[in-house]
Amino acid sequence: MRPILLLLALTSAGGLQPAGFDGFYQPARLIQSQIGEKSSSAPVKPRHELTAELKEFRQTAIPVQFPSNGLMLSGWVYRPQGPGPFPAVVWNHGSEQEPTAHPDLGKFYTSHGYVLFLPIRHGHTPSPGEYIQDVVDRYRAQTHDRATFQRRVVELQDVYNEDVAAAIAWIKKQPFVDGKHIVVTGCSYGGIQTLLTAERGLGVSAFIAFAPAAMSWGNDELRSRLLARCVPPKRRSSSSRPRTITTSARARSWVR
Q: Is pLDDT of 219 > 50?
């Protein structure tokens, strides 16, 4: 059975989120310095506070480790009640350096009978390795040709995608998981990782990408790569085309 691909492009009424000046995501502090805007020294408040119920549910997250390219990476697993085996959802975090355990997602998926696995790619705390945005910043300083920089950054996403493949392989082997029913999803950088994983298949049943490249759509290399995943060549028969669903008229225009 061919996998299902869902592309959920979240855009604001005012248009796309702004990309960096070089067409790829840049941390807010760097963009502020480039446009002469001073960053505030006040601590950034979280977007929302966990309810008491979610704080309690967070305690059910099981810390795990899985191997990837010689490193032992970290993650969390939420399990429904019962012995299983259960279908599983693999959630790809975004570009944040310190991903969270997302008890809201854990509670949602487990209440519907799914295991939720939140792997942490290398360089994102607490997994060892170099943080991807530090590598991007180094490329930006070393590379003065826009096309070369964009290509190198897309290649970098492939490097980190090896961690996603390793996470899928690991969760499939767990005795409480039905390895034939795996879904891969994620938002922002996690959406990019989801689409790159969709290129590989890996025996996954469905791929759900939320706002892939929302801050990086100006990267021509990345945009063409992701759209190639969403829009198969015309020579393919309609029966082999993955289903693509978008959530806005603007997003639907990208995949026509």
A: yes
